[in-house]
Design a protein that fits this description.
- By secondary structure, the protein is of the alpha/beta class.
- It folds into two domains: 184 residues, Lysozyme-like; 75 residues, no CATH class.
- The chain contains ten helices and ten strands.
- It is globular and about 55 Å long.
Length: 270
Amino acid sequence: MVKKINTVLMDVGPLISIDGVVIHNDAGSGSPEWYVNWLAGRNKDLGIAHYYITKDCIARVIDTNLIGYHTGHWPSNQRYIGYEVCQSMSASDADFIANEDMTLMQATEDLLFYGLPINANTVRLHHEFVPTSCPHRSMALHGGTTESVKAYFIERISYFASIGKTVDEMLAKQGQHPVEVAKLQQEEEEEYMNFVVRSNSGKQGYVGIVNGIVFGIGDIRTVQQLQDAGAKHLHLDDGDFTRLLESQGFDDKKLVASIEEIAKHISTQK
């Protein structure tokens, strides 16, 4: 069974209507449990969604009838429930899709609970409301356009709605594994997406992400070398870039291992 955490970290009043769900990618590597602790001491004006979800844990930190600060757009904050798919900067493709499926199952449960249809008006993406790369990882995996990602999400949510009304019912119907994830895990090795990341303004410089480890880049030549070794170049809006940095817990041993791994990647390209 998936672990569930229900707490209330913010209550600024009820939604004026419940029009649908907004899917986000967290631009981080934290678990839902980590986010619960981190958000508890963070200024909520900086952003907070209703849910933080991986394949193993669903953390609800704001009741679904209450306002969240997840879109950066007040009218949509007053009308939509926000869901963060966690670990978009660290999970393998298979694990991220499993995290995404669990998120979509919870979104399905909530859409059904509130009697909402499943369509392009009720299933929304963060960047439909404000200029942002979110949900960046979902975009990379599902066609690269708003239309393709929404079509994928709507198809998945419609499927989940056909097999159950709650997350537990959906999991029971498919043997605890989101559809296609087991196949993905058999077909691909546990490969991590590596990134070179910059904020849109460029004020914070570049960071690299290799095997889920984040490090600062001090030499622009390193950016090109990482890209030559297969790292994807990603621009995040300044707020998402800051959140990425804030969400990282730095471990010296892991960082050293990551740098050694980077060196190997670069040396094989020479």
